[in-house]
From TrEMBL, chain A:
Transmembrane segments: none annotated. This is NitT/TauT family transport system ATP-binding protein. Coiled coil: none annotated. Residues 19-250 form the ABC transporter domain. It comes from Mycetocola miduiensis.
TrEMBL record, chain B:
GO terms for biological process: transmembrane transport. Its main location: membrane. InterPro entries: MetI-like, MetI-like_sf. This is NitT/TauT family transport system permease protein. Keywords: Cell membrane, Membrane, Transmembrane, Transmembrane helix, Transport.
Amino acid sequence: MLPNRTVRETKETKMISHLNVENLEIRYNVNAAEPAITGVNLEIKQGEFVTVIGPSGCGKSTLLHAMGGMLSPSSGGIYLDGIEMARPDPRQAAFVFQDYSLFPWKKVVDNVAMGLRFAGEDKKVALEKARAELGFVGLADKADKYPGELSGGMQQRVAVARALALKPKFLLMDEPFGALDEQTRRSLGQELTQILHDAGQSVVLITHSLEEAIFWADRIVVMKAGPGEISKEIVVDEPWPRSLEFMTTARFDDLRAELFHRIQPTTASEAK
Amino acid sequence: MRPSTSAGPRRTIVWSLRILFVVVVFGGWILANATGSISPIILPQLGAVLSESIELLRESEVWAAAGITVFEMIAGFGIAAVAGLLVGFVLSRKPLRSAIFEKLLAWGYIFPISLVYPLFLIWAGVGLPSKILFAAASAFFPIAYNTMKGLSAVPVRYLKVGQAFGASAQATDWHIRAGASRPMILSGLRLGVSMATVSVVLAEMLGANAGLGFMAQQASSQFQIPKAYAVVLILVVITSLLLWLMETLLRDPNEKLKK
Ligand SMILES: Nc1ncnc2c1ncn2[C@@H]1O[C@H](COP(=O)(O)OP(=O)(O)OP(=O)(O)O)[C@@H](O)[C@H]1O
Ligand SMILES: [Mg+2]
């Protein structure tokens, strides 16, 4: 039933794209004592699944927004295949935001088609693609509902479909399941991340969950606060497909322990 | 404002009580007639009012009057809607503008414009135009105010999505600002409809030479009490139909979900 997404294939047939963050500094306020993030260097290759973890307020969202061209750097820059990302381009990097960001006044299918319409796609074609994308995330039968008629988990799947509809090179997800209850969060997270993985979609995923950060990652970016910086990058070289068994291995435990200590200082304050 | 009884287990109870209410009112009326406890000059025979109504509906005079009244309501509302949406939109464009005019619009909203109706008579005469302008002036304020408020209070997170997905300025206006403010604009328009209808009837009673309000006023001043009641009855029915129609047209398609 799943349409055959072809980024894996692209990887072999076309040049692989690179998203480069170079010496990035972001200040929200010129007078602020401390930048939100500083000295960030990061390279992401198409096809990679990168997770970002770090204490609350360390600048994860800031980094992600900057990577998608939503913030202008105070210094340094973001480059896609060597070209500076001056403004958001959802065909290059598309967002899934943390809060439910669907438009409640539009039907689900129109929400998904919206990005395509903004990009100048013909209405009919956009709606067809939107329906296909909804099928991809398993929500074909909800196309003509309004977002308010869907559960939180379904709404986030719609937001994923909205981003995927543009066939972005990079999918930027900011704690997409953060607002869901534990149960939904697990099952939906598993399901969606699996789909994205199978499709070879390049993903940058911000998460608070140590398990999520390790299990899905080709690479984990660990950030620290004050000022926001990357404190470590960890390559997770466990081959794909990964079974749940991976979570029971010593390697997984070691990684979890390492992450736990690295983000420890503020975990107490964010136990909300 | 509409009562929100569209669904729920109490539905049958609510409707039974409503019907009971109507029965009590008309029952009381008949009883008062029978006992003669209220003078027929104040409360005529229910039968007389009903037969007078049927009589009236056979005459073209009442239909012409009703046509005039409905036309004034629709024209007044139409002008107010166009002007209100336009002004609200223009004012919402710049924070400074909306800050300057917000209080003024809010004040126009609550000010009883009927106080200055005599001025409308001076400006536009005793015919239709004064009614239409008066209705338009009354309905304008809630429409302009709600439009301005709705458009300038679009949640940032929706605008952020638009930015992330590369929406042009026009697309942002049309797909995001208009959509996000739609419930508020529609409620302004619905308020406008009731303002326009009330204003027309009031104006026809205060100074006019045509329309149902004028007819009712004439009949009562000539002590044709059953006729006055009958005209008011027709007026109530027509206005209710018009309000119901406009409410239906101006309902937000996903409004029920927000409750
Ligand atoms: N729009 C903004 N204006 C000013 N300061 C901001 C803004 N957004 C974030 N900040 C500040 O920048 C810093 C990093 O915030 P950011 O939202 O990127 O953190 P985060 O790692 O995503 O946190 P969380 O895990 O709680 O989502 C914080 O100190 C925050 O207060
Ligand atoms: Mg964040």
